[in-house]
Amino acid sequence: MSPRHGGRPGVTQNGPEVERVSGPESEFMKPNKNQSLERILESAIVVSWADLMRGVQTGLIHIEYGFAAGGTLDHLQVWSSITRGHWLLACGYWMSASKFHGTGVHFDNQYQSEGLAHILEFVMQHQTAFVLPPDRGRQGLLQISTPTEEESMAAASSVTEAFDRFGSVLAPACAGLNSGGVH
């Protein structure tokens, strides 16, 4: 039984069940001044859905993230599952470089999304302007399933509002998101 229905999360064939940030009874991705970082990340994935699903209509996306010492996000990874039980790393974002990776967004496994790259860059560089998830000494995980048309429109609106709120030079790149150009 899912958490939405009063039960506890269980284990599915794709791994642990994770309560979605969205749902029919939630305030899914409504743009506002107190938007959470997790919701804007989910919105970024939803507007980039076609790029991450490679033409397949349904699938799952996981966003894994880790914290820096100051309580902000240090890194995140986006994993795509087009075929049940099989996961591919689509991209990662690192705030600081190491001998294993550079800073910024890096795509893997032949994934590419200019729109997602711009949104992740903006969000990670302005993450303190969003409500950060609590750092409980753990890694975070968001699971996003195939969005509905309504969720896609709400995600595009959420991303556009976030860019507009900060007067970002990246806002024009996202201007087409509300006009039916949702990926």
Q: Mind explaining what this structure looks like?
A:
By secondary structure, this protein is an alpha+beta fold. The protein has one domain (about 30-175). The protein has 5 helices and 7 strands; from the N terminus they run E-E-H-H-E-E-E-E-H-E-H-H. The protein has helices at about 35-45, 50-55, 115-125, 150-165, 170-175, and strands at about 10, 15, 60-65, 75-80, 90-95, 105, 140-145. The protein has a 5-stranded antiparallel sheet, with helices on one face. Strands 1-2 form a two-stranded antiparallel sheet. Helix 1 (about 35-45) packs antiparallel against helix 3 (about 115-125) and helix 1 crosses helix 4 (about 150-165). It is globular and about 40 Å long. The two termini are about 30 Å apart.
Write a brief caption for the model.
The chain is an alpha+beta fold and 183 residues long. It has one domain. It has helices at residues 37-47, 49-53, 114-125, 149-165, 171-174; strands spanning 11-12, 15-16, 60-67, 73-81, 88-94, 104-107, 140-145.
